[in-house]
Amino acid sequence: MSTVDIELRKVRKVYFKDRLEIPVLEGLDLTIAAGEFVVLMGPSGSGKSTLLHLIGGLDSATGGSVRVGDAHLEKMSERERTAWRSRHVGFIFQMYHLVPVLTAAQNVELPLLLFSMSSSQRKERVRTALEVVGLSDRADHRPNQLSGGQEQRVAIARAIVTDPDVILADEPTGDLDAKTSEEILELLNLLNSEFGKTILMVTHDPRAASHGQRTVHLDKGVLDREELNPARPRGAAAMVS
Amino acid sequence: MTLTYVLMQNLRRNTLRVVLTAVAFALPMAVFVAAISFVVALAQISADMEKELRLGVHHKTTLTNPLPAGMRSKIEALDPDRRRIAAVCGMRWFGGRVPDTQNTLTSIAGDPDTFPLVYSDVGMTAQDIEAWQRDRRACVVGRNPVDTYGWKQGDRVTLVSTVPPYLQLEFNIVKIVENRERANFFWFRRDYLVESMKDAGVDDARCNIFWIKCKSAEGLRTLQQDIDALFANSPDETKSEDENAFVANFTQAMGNIPGLMQTMAMVVVVIVALVAGNAMMMSFRERTRELAVFKAIGFQSGRVFLIVLSESIMLAMGGALLGVVPAAVLLWLLPIRLTGIGPMIALEVTRLGVIGSMAIALCVGVVAGLWPAFQAMRLQTTDALRKVA
User: Is B296's Cβ below 8 Å from some Cβ in A?
Assistant: First the structure.
């Protein structure tokens, strides 16, 4: 089990479109403790997904610093961030994005192709990941033979199969019904509480947000407010600056 | 699971499109292989002919303008000591078809006494030559008509001429020629033709061409000059040329076929590149988000570039492989196989044609996949993912 803290200092992100500057994040400070489950909320365009992408190393900040564990992402090249991401970050997307021509097990195995690992070691990792998400009996099913909830479970297994420090989930229940959403959120809770994963989840759904230990509200690229969830007390302290 | 397996599975993503693209690739590649095979066959046959030291003498104006049969003795008289000439064979075009078929065979009547000497490369044994000289209706046949019509040695076969007086003659097969470059030929005795024409009321023993087997390259060159000089300013001026030049002139008289074939092959390659490029662009556009996820989970841009490029190459190579089979069938079915373009063509898919087409397919696969692969490499992961976030 591995876990890391996250620290963002005066993070700015500006997009350029047709020579127009579009500021998305404006001097954001945020600290997430190791093993914390934080929910990001806010209206469309508030910078939630951008923040997620910066922490995941998918994009680089225009200014400020982003540190995840020992990794100072603002100092890393795209190539270095990609290599780092493959070992330290697991992504979960709203639309699952599974490869339709591969089975559930093969989809989960995909990130492991980047590791120096024998076929049997990969299979063992895949089996464990599918067990954690409760889909051992669907290993040979293709995505079109699975329900939406099962597809998202496969996507979660794919995100955790490399044993990452951080899990970044971008509206993971946005395409699911209430019951299935609840199951997925319970699964994320399990990854947080049992496996100690630091989780950052973007959502618009207050019910989904209630599963996090802390909810951070963004508005127009700045931190608007934060709420601690008394029902989900956290062990480590988190700090909003 | 390996990345190659993932690539193979990706080709199954839209089976219908992959099949249609592969077929769209295979058919032009079949034409390409056929065209290259033609050019290669022509080059090969020209190379073989140079070794045979044969000099062809025909009318200066055109091959269809016949020359008197007596020219043979005048040509032979140029070399009484037989230092340069091995044998002279007068030949006449018959243009026969098997009754009720459309394919005209390269059927030619030759002098019975000298034909085996002039065409020693067809490999007639002493027994074959004896049969040829004993039987007035003897014929020597190449492999293509034998295979097409199911003939065998000893069979009696019938041909109907496509030129006046449109004789229908019967022949006995005394020899089947295995030489690839002689696969379309049907030779028979000129004395039989002359007598049959006389019986039909046409007294014409003239020849379209005299083929002279020379003893040396130097002898061939000097004979060429001596013969044309001998008949200069006569009613029957001649043009002498070696067999290689004769075939080249013959094919060029029908248009620059090798050049045309090469141009056609180039056009085919361009069309195929456009088809493959379009398919790869469509495939890339459909999978933009998926490729973004590949990058998100840690695949480097270079690796994503190779994934897309490899798919393009696999599709191109697969299509090209599929194209070789129809090419072989195409060459077999085309009437060209029996009639020959030029007197010496035997078409088949050559190893060089197959290797060449695979090499071209590799290049086309690279060219077609390069832009989509570059796009995939440059893909902004966040932009692609934002569409669903």
Answer: yes
